[in-house]
Write a structure and sequence with these properties.
Order of helices and strands: HHHHHH
Number of strands: 0
Helix content: 40-55%
Strand content: under 5%
Distance between the termini: 22 Å
Largest sheet: none
Number of helices: 6
Length: 184
């Protein structure tokens, strides 16, 4: 079920960096964990489930690609999310990303996730270049008139990845016995 795949460099947040560097470093470590847990697997490996759960590694890749795109489109830019997410009726099919991942090849799933994470990185880099740090407010306004700051959006992404890293650990171990947190 596996194909050989060299591990990417393992990101570590700085021990004494700025707040932005620490938050972004923590997010990159979570992204790297997901990438590692999904690396080198063919379609069968990415479609493996554990126990009663229907969650797969491929489904996690597609779900987290959606989370990356939707958080920044909706909360930071207050714009509609783009393809393929804009064609989904999320009210009727809230598990669409998980449900349809088996229809995509491993290469498509990895590319979708990598491209979504790259868009998020570019958005954050542009925001930080413009100044204001993590206190900058996103364009989205809640019903009560509040706007999320960049810090909150990034912390929500870290939380989302961390929640799913446990799923990825269990699924990957059931596929081929891979365990641990750091390929290095």
């Amino acid at each position: 079920m596996t194909q050989s795949n060299a591990a990417e460099a393992w990101p570590e947040p700085p021990l004494a960096g700025t707040e932005a560097a620490a938050v972004l470093g923590a997010l990159e470590r979570q992204r790297a964990t997901l990438a590692w847990k999904c690396s080198g697997l063919d379609a069968a490996g990415l479609n493996t489930t554990v126990g009663a759960s229907t969650i797969t590694l491929g489904g996690l890749l597609k779900h987290l690609a959606h989370v990356e795109d939707s958080h920044f489109a909706r909360l930071w830019l207050d714009t509609p999310v783009g393809a393929p997410w804009d064609a989904v009726d999320w009210d009727k099919d809230p598990d669409w990303a998980y449900r349809t991942a088996a229809q995509d090849s491993p290469g498509q799933l990895r590319a979708l996730w990598r491209e979504s994470a790259a868009r998020s990185r570019a958005t954050v880099d542009a925001a930080l270049r413009d100044g204001g740090g993590l206190d900058q407010l996103g364009a989205y306004v809640t019903r009560s008139g509040e706007r999320p700051n960049l810090r909150r959006i990034l912390l929500d992404l870290i939380e989302e990845y961390a929640r799913h890293a446990g799923h990825a650990d269990l699924i990957r171990e059931s596929v081929d016995g891979l365990t641990g947190e750091d390929p290095g």
